[in-house]
Amino acid sequence: MRCHRLISLLRIIFFSLVVVFNHTAVADGVVVDKVYHPYVLPNEREFEWRMLSHQNDDGNSLGHRLAYGQSLTEHLMIEVYLVGERDSTGDFGLSAYEVETRWMITEQGEYWADWGMLLEVEKEHKLDIWEVTTGLLFEKEFGRNSLALNAFLIYETGGDIESEFEGEFRLQYRYRWLPQVQPAIEFYMGEDYTGIGPAFMGIQRFEGQKQLKWEAGFITGLNGDSKDHILRVAIEYEF
Amino acid sequence: MVNVRSKFVQGVIVAFILLSLPSLAKRPEFQLILKNHLFYPAEIEIPANTKVKLIIHNQDQTPEEFDSFDLNREKVIFPQKKAVIFIGPLLPGRYEFFGEFNPNSAQGAIVVKSSKLNAKVNQNTLIDATALSSNSPDKPVTQQALVKELNRAD
Question: Does domain B27-153 have CATH number 3.40.50.300?
Answer without folding.
Answer: no
